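Final report, Chapter 2: Outcomes

The project's central promise was a pipeline that accepts a single protein chain and returns its three-dimensional structure in a standardized token representation, suitable for archiving and comparison. That pipeline is now operational. To close this chapter, we reproduce one record exactly as it appears in the project archive, with the input sequence first and the structure output second.
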Amino acid sequence: MTSEPEFGLDLIPASAFTFEELTEAYNHTRVDYLVPMPMNAARLREYVQIYDIDMEASVVAVDGNEIVGLSMLGVRPGRCWITRLGVIRSKRRRRAGWTMVNHLIEQARLKQARYIVIEVITDNQPAYNLFIKRGFSETRKLLVLRRPPGPPAGDPPAARIESLNQAAAEALLERRTSTPSWVDEKESLLNAGNLAAFYAHLPDGSEGWLVYQDTPWQLGRLVIQTEAGDPQTVGRALLHHLHRTYPHKDTKTENLPLLDPHWPVFQELGYLEMFRRTEMVLHFTAEP
């Protein structure tokens, strides 16, 4: 069940606004957030393209002539994703967030989604409580990691490493057995582009691969998979090779599950936890 907008609040499709207007509104809603993550218009446009944001289904909350909040909806076959939800500080606790979330849930139903997901920054208790109240349940914790430039310390395990191009990287993603988040689903990675991969073969028969994005200024979007053997040994070989190959590049990767078996190796190789997200999901029944 959805609720009507609060009195005086209009919900307008995000497509009715320019990217400059949306960027200004978004930054205004995030100034006091735990992790503000400011945007510019070019980055927001790229964000919409990478994550399949439906601008008609996304919404801006307006009170008179004032934008008081916005939220976006990613749409892919069978599933949707709420993102960039924000309300300006002076307008919070007036059901604007609740109203926008209900609107996006309704839009997801109209898209015939089986479920809708959201990621809330851990310790953002008001947002967490909103989604719990609306029927979402917590699925897992996700880590946002960063590693400063520099070669790795220590010696890697003996391994034969193959360097692979984007086409091969795309083929590896088809073999992925770990559960991706929206941010690192195959669709997101292909939309982002500039992918490459390494495949590691170890003497004991262990093997696995690492897909990553290589841009002129940064490495990112890491997906690591062990196909045989010990994940930490395979992960150590792959991450050592990555940072020996690109010792001068900063690295940022998002949404590594806290329980991923490779997480200890990321820590060993100098990755720092920037913050955590709590992934939540709402499954739809056959009848709204």
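Archive annotation: Confidence is low (pLDDT under 50) at residues 1-7.
This record, like all others produced under the grant, will remain available to the consortium after the project formally closes.
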